[in-house]
Write a structure and sequence with these properties.
Elements: E1 3-11, E2 14-20, E3 26-30, H1 37-47, H2 72-76, H3 79-88, E4 100-108, E5 114-122, E6 127-131, E7 134-136, H4 138-147, E8 158-159, H5 163-169, H6 172-183, H7 189-269, H8 273-385, H9 390-405, H10 408-507, H11 516-531, E9 535-538, H12 539-542, E10 543-545, H13 551-558, E11 565-567, H14 570-583, E12 590-592, E13 612-614, E14 619-621, H15 626-633, E15 637-639, H16 642-651, E16 658-660, E17 665-666, E18 672-673, H17 687-710, H18 714-794, H19 796-802, H20 807-840, H21 842-950, E19 957-959, H22 971-974, E20 998-999, H23 1006-1011, H24 1014-1031, H25 1037-1099, E21 1109-1114, E22 1125-1130, H26 1144-1159, E23 1166-1170, H27 1178-1191, E24 1197-1201, H28 1205-1208, E25 1213-1220, E26 1225-1232
Parallel strand pairs: 3-24, 3-25, 8-23, 11-12, 15-16, 23-24
Antiparallel strand pairs: 1-2, 1-4, 4-5, 5-6, 6-7, 9-11, 10-14, 13-15, 16-17, 17-18, 19-20, 21-22, 25-26
Helix pairs in contact: 5-26, 6-25, 7-21, 7-24, 7-25, 8-18, 8-20, 8-21, 10-17, 10-18, 14-21, 20-21, 25-26
Length: 1238
């Protein structure tokens, strides 16, 4: 058996020296929790070289036993107190604390030889290894373990507690690394990476050399082609130079012949000029006289027009006054009408009051008559009473005295009540009369209130209508004024913009009124571009500085060439000059692109100094005109400051034209020309912008004219203002009437309220008095009945005597007359009071109102008469003004007819003068054309001389030298357009400079002189030039060819060496890769073959005799160690799921299957398992126990720590571990179970 026993000395919980064993093929270690089972696992790991971190301790010295012996009293106190004290003294040294710890493992190999592996550790952390009781190094120690297939790094001999599930759930890469450790391929990782890096470097180097060799071979091929092209290029250049010489000779021959012909024509034409000039003078005098007459008549027309405008303005000023007077008349008329209506209403009210007074007077007569009748009745009654005898009257008096004695109290009360009844009766009558008067007054005021209310509604309706008219008129005025304001605002904005445009034009150096010469120059340039297609434009138009700061400097650099005209060919320039001479259109410089000589640009000045740059680099132009720009700029340099210019010209001694940004120039000779004032052409860069500004100016002027047409006439505003004044005045009058009406309505309301208040006050009082009067009457009747009864007893005999029913009949007869008289008198007095009130109040007020209205009518009629007079006078004035204007217009028409006649006469004279002038101008233009032709030909001849000199063309000469021809042409001196006239009015023949040169034309044959053409020569030269330009040969190709061939040989040698190095590195890498793959695949294939069978053995049972399925799969089959390995396990009778979805027990079984399969490859002689069955049920524990029992043998030993009886009961031996509390140490017991096998 491989592991025989373990000897511990003061290791962790094991105090002193203890021997554990012997171990059988299948040994189970059991014991309660905390007894030290896992410490035994740590001891086995420790002695086999496992690191302290994996032994549940941070340092090796923690593995040394530390503790103290416990006494009886300590045991009695309980385990909790002892554990706490042990924790408190854990770091110190107790009674039983050791200085070092050691573990000895006795191992027996297959041959029966015993090996002793011992490892010792002290509290200081020093570790010692012994092999067969000899101290050795860790390397030797580990090598001995490896020789017995015990791999410490792979830990193929043990499984710690809790590691089972981690094994099953580990990532594919971790599983791949584990197999690398088991197979030994991991040791080749460093060699593999080094070989791979060397291969990549060698491959890259070989690729680089191959690319370099291919590029050099391409260069050799290119240089060989360029060599042949250079030889053909030289032959074509020689042929072209010969053609150019012949072309120049032929052109000079034509020029000489044309100059002689034009000279003969000028001499002939001068003879006709004198007569034409005299005829022109006569026509000019007649034209001047006609113009004077026309000017006089035109001034008269202008004066008449001014007078008409002045009269119309005066007329326009009078019309608003007429409108205002008409408004006043309308207002007065309306006021008179309204007052008349009011007067009629007041008169009707007065008549009603008079009718009422008459009615009251009639009633008064009737009441007075009734009173008189009553008075007469009383008188007759009194006379009848007087007919009684004295005795009867005496008897009546005595009886009356006797009767008065009877019922004295009742009589007294009756007298008092009678007095009260009379008083209340009078009060009732007065109150009733007053109530009636107030009711009549209320009815009258109510009727007047209704009339005033209707009048108010009518006035309000009129005010509403007037306000609507006023609002509409004001809106019209506001709209018109808004339109005027809008137009004025637009005019102001347009004027402001126009002023801004003028200011910009002024800043750009453009006068508002351009001179006739400038206008003609622009027109001439436009005509040239239209007539001659080769005219490109002025230099200033064809280029522009790249920044505004360079404008002044570039204007100085270009100088006189800034206005030069660029053309495609020299012939086009000559044709343009001829056209300008014929049209007398001024002078200009032309730059032909085909013959202009351009000096090569010196590239050293591009970066000669900081702040200095070539002029051609700071100006932008089209590629087609670059030659002209280079000719104009040359090698001039633009410097930021004067210091930089001095540095270039003086300190560095460069003969170059240097120009600063301010316009200061240092010439090649060293002279300095300074001052911005001499260079005012920088604004010419903005001429395109200036033309745009001019278009904007014209548009703004047109806009201002259109706005002036849209502006409303001033008279309309005045009419609207007059209408508004009329409506406002009318509205004011009606508002006054409305205010008076409202005031009257308010007064009537107050008066009605007062009347209603008085009526309300009278009604209760009247009712109260009436009730009091009724009460008195009832009491009187009651008392009267008592008194009457007493009197009837006294006057019975007397009444029978005078033949009346009772004494009251006699007395009533006398009293009735008196009462009727009294009643009639009261009615008469009341009627008199009512009549006086009507006359005093109503009629008087009506008469006063009528008088007031009469006064208003009189005043307004007077105003109306005054306004009518003013209106009549104003109409007469307006009519007079209109008549005066009409007269002025008639006079203006007569003067205009006269002006028309003068204009016709002037036009006729102009036509005659123009015709004569045209004849003279035609003659002058012909002479000028011939002179210009001579001058143009002379300039063309000089241009050819200069071209031949610059291009070193050897012209055949009879006399003179090309060096006498100046290199620059001064057009201001040589091409002056003003031709002097002599006293006879003729023009002299133009004298031109021939520079003392006479050309020999003998080389031209007669056929070429007669039938030759410059165009044909130009075509042939252009054809050769095009072919030469297309070639673009490399004249240094021959020299470069030899260098490149030598370079190719060297590159081929380097490429061959790199190829060999690449092959060597590739072979070395493939060898390392092969060995690593073989080691890995060997282990993987073995484990992959075993895993399924192991898993089936662990999972099969009665329900599933075949067991589960497990297999491994590679992620990278070519280099499997770079990829991961996936582990798949499917428990019996369950569908496939990921490992993470398995239960804890299923994961444990899968992990154990993987561990057993891995262990089967180069297996260790023993396998230590620490509680791997913790997550398993009894069935699975039994399966694990059967598998271990079946595979345990003399060469493969299992040591299992377990608490499951179904597992450890299957072992060959048991090692029991318990805690000895007396000595505070773990102890062991060993039991051989083989003696109990059946």
């Amino acid at each position: 058996m491989p592991l025989v026993r373990i000897e511990l000395c003061d290791f962790k919980s094991y105090r002193g020296h203890q021997t554990i064993g012997p171990f059988r093929n299948f040994t189970s270690i059991i014991g309660p929790n905390g007894a030290g089972k896992s410490n035994l696992m740590d001891a086995i790991s420790f002695v086999l070289g496992v690191k302290s971190v994996q032994l549940r301790s941070s340092q090796l010295k923690d593995l040394v036993y530390r503790g103290r012996r416990l006494g009886k009293t300590d045991l009695e106190e309980g385990s909790e107190a002892g554990a706490a004290e042990e924790d408190d003294n854990g770091e110190g040294e107790g009674e039983g604390t050791a200085k070092k710890a050691s573990v000895l493992a006795v191992y027996q190999d297959a041959e029966g030889q015993e090996w002793k592996f011992q490892r010792t550790i002290s509290t200081t952390g020093a570790s010692e290894y012994k092999l067969n009781d000899k101290v050795v190094t860790y390397s030797t120690y580990n090598s001995a373990l490896i020789s017995h297939n015990i791999l410490v790094k792979a830990k193929n001999f043990l499984v710690f507690q809790g590691d089972v599930e981690q094994v099953a759930s580990q990532s594919p890469l971790a599983l791949s690394r584990l197999i690398e450790q088991i197979s030994g391929s991991l040791e080749l990782t460093a060699e593999y990476e080094k070989a791979k890096e060397a291969q990549e470097r060698a491959t890259e180097n070989a690729t680089f050399n191959f690319t370099k060799r291919r590029g050099i071979a391409g260069e050799i091929k290119q240089y060989k082609e360029q060599k042949g092209e250079a030889e053909r290029f030289e032959s074509l250049r020689a042929e072209r130079d010969d053609l150019i010489l012949k072309r120049n000779l032929f052109k000079l021959f034509q020029i000489e012949d044309s100059i002689e012909d034009n000279s003969r024509k000028i001499v002939s034409k001068n003879k006709e000029l004198a007569g034409l000039r005299e005829e022109q003078r006569v026509h000019d005098k007649a034209l001047e006289a006609a113009r004077v007459e026309q000017a006089k008549v035109r001034s008269s027309v202008v004066q008449k027009e001014k007078n008409i405008k002045k009269a119309e303005k005066t007329l326009d000023n009078k019309r608003p006054d007429l409108v205002a007077i008409e408004a006043q008349i309308m207002h007065s008329t309306r006021k008179i009408n309204n007052t008349a209506k009011t007067k009629d209403e007041v008169a009707r009210n007065e008549q009603k009051l008079r009718d009422r007074v008459e009615s009251l007077e009639k009633e008064l007569v009737s009441v007075r008559r009734a009173a008189d009748v009553a008075q007469e009745e009383q008188r007759r009654t009194a006379q009848h009473n007087m007919a009684l005898s004295e005795e009867s009257l005496e008897e009546y008096r005595k009886l009356k005295v006797s009767a008065n004695v009877l019922a004295i109290d009742e009589r007294q009360s009756l007298e008092r009540l009678t007095r009260d009844e009379k008083a209340t009766g009078r009060t009732v009558a007065q109150l009733a009369e007053r109530e009636k008067a107030l009711s009549e007054k209320r009815d009258a005021r109510s009727e007047e209130f209704n009339l005033q209310t209707e009048k108010k509604a009518e006035l309000e309706e009129k005010i509403t209508s007037l306000q609507a008219d006023l609002a509409r008129t004001r809106q019209d005025l506001n709209n018109q004024q808004s339109e005027k304001t809008r137009i004025s605002k637009l005019e102001a904005e347009a004027d402001e913009k126009l002023q801004g445009v003028y200011q910009q034009l002024l800043q750009a150096g453009v006068d508002r009124n351009e001179s006739e010469r400038e206008i003609r120059l622009k027109e001439t340039l436009a005509n040239l571009q239209r007539i001659f297609p080769g005219v490109r434009g002025r230099v200033v138009d064809l280029c522009k500085p790249i920044a505004r700061k360079y404008e002044t400097a570039m204007s100085v650099v270009l100088g006189r060439n800034i206005d030069a005209i660029v053309v495609d060919e020299e012939k086009t320039a000559i044709d343009c000059i001829e056209y300008m001479r014929n049209q007398r259109a001024g002078q200009a410089t032309f730059i032909p692109l085909d013959t202009i000589q351009v000096k090569p640009i010196n590239d050293k000045f591009r970066s000669f100094a900081k702040g200095a740059r070539l002029a051609v680099d700071v100006i932008a132009s089209e590629s087609a005109v670059e030659r002209a720009i280079h000719h104009a700029c040359g090698n001039a340099i633009v410097c930021d400051t004067m210091e930089i210019a001095r540095y270039v010209c003086y300190e560095k001694g460069q003969e170059v034209k240097a120009v600063t940004l301010e316009g200061t120039v240092i010439h090649k000779s060293g002279l300095i020309t300074g001052g911005r004032s001499t260079h005012n052409t920088s604004k010419k860069w903005d001429e395109k912008d200036v033309q745009g500004l001019m278009r904007v100016r014209d548009n703004l002027k047109a806009q201002l004219r259109e706005l002036a047409k849209q502006k409303p006439r001033g008279q309309t505003d005045e009419n609207l203002i007059a209408e508004i004044s009329r409506l406002e005045s009318t509205t004011t009058v009606i508002r006054d009437d409305l205010s008076a009406c409202k005031l009257r309505i308010t007064g009537l309301k107050d008066e009605l309220k007062h009347i209603d208040k008085e009526i309300k006050q009278i009604n209760p009082e009247l009712k109260k008095v009436q009730r009091s009067h009724a009460t008195c009457v009832a009491e009187i009747e009651k008392l009267t009945a008592i008194v009457n009864a007493a009197e009837d007893g006294v006057f019975r005999a007397f009444c029978e005597k005078i033949k009346v029913a009772n004494i009251r009949e006699y007395e009533e007869r006398q009293l009735k007359v008196a009462q009727e008289e009294s009643k009639a008198r009261l009615q008469f007095e009341a009627q008199m009071a009512r009549l006086g009130h009507q006359q005093k109040d109503g009629l008087t007020a009506a008469l006063e109102r009528l008088a007031s209205l009469e006064t208003v009518i009189t005043t307004e009629e007077a105003n109306l008469a005054k306004y009518e007079g003013q209106k009549t006078a104003l109409k007469e004035e307006i009519a007079a003004s209109e008549e005066a204007i009409e007269n002025l217009r008639k006079e203006l028409a007569e003067i205009q007819e006269n002006l028309e006649e003068k204009n016709k006469s002037l036009d006729a004279i102009k036509k005659t003068t123009t015709k004569a002038g045209k004849v003279l101008d035609l003659a002058l233009k012909e002479i000028a054309t011939w002179n210009d032709e001579i001058e143009k030909l002379a300039l063309e001849r000089s241009s050819i001389y200069r071209k031949c000199r610059l291009e070193e063309i050897q012209l055949p000469l009879l006399q003179g030298n090309l060096k006498n021809v100046p290199m620059e042409e001064n057009l201001r001196d040589e091409v002056a357009m003003d031709v002097d006239e002599n006293e006879e009015g003729t023009q002299q023949l133009k004298k031109v400079q021939d520079h003392g040169i006479e050309v020999d034309f003998e080389s031209l044959d007669n056929d070429t002189r007669e039938n030759g053409s410059v165009t044909e020569f130009d075509k042939e030269v252009a054809k050769l030039n095009a072919e030469i330009e297309r070639m673009a040969p490399n004249l240094k190709a021959i020299d470069r060819l030899e260098d490149v061939e030598a370079k190719l040989a060297e590159t081929e040698r380097e490429a061959e060496k790199a190829r060999k190095d690449s092959k060597t590195a590739r072979d070395e890498f493939q060898d390392v890769k092969r060995r690593r793959c073989e080691l890995f695949n060997k282990a993987y294939n073995h484990i992959s073959d075993r895993i399924d069978q192991v898993y089936k053995d662990l999972t099969k049972g009665k329900a599933s005799p075949m067991g589960g399925v497990a297999y491994l799969s590679l992620e990278d089959s070519e280099e499997p160690y770079n990829g991961g390995i996936k582990y798949h396990a499917m428990p019996p009778m369950k569908r496939f799921r990921d490992m993470e979805q398995l239960s804890g027990g299923e994961k444990t079984v899968a992990a154990l299957a993987l561990l057993f399969a891995i262990h089967s490859y180069q297996p260790a002689p023993f396998f230590v398992l620490d509680e791997v069955d913790a997550a398993l049920d009894n069935t699975n524990v039994a399966k694990i126990a059967n598998y271990i029992r079946a595979h345990a043998s003399e060469v493969f030993q299992f040591i299992v720590i377990s608490l499951k009886g179904s597992l450890y009961e299957r072992g060959n031996s048991l090692v029991g571990i318990y805690r000895d509390q007396d000595v505070n140490s773990s102890r062991t017991l060993t039991l051989d179970l083989t003696q109990y096998d059946e």
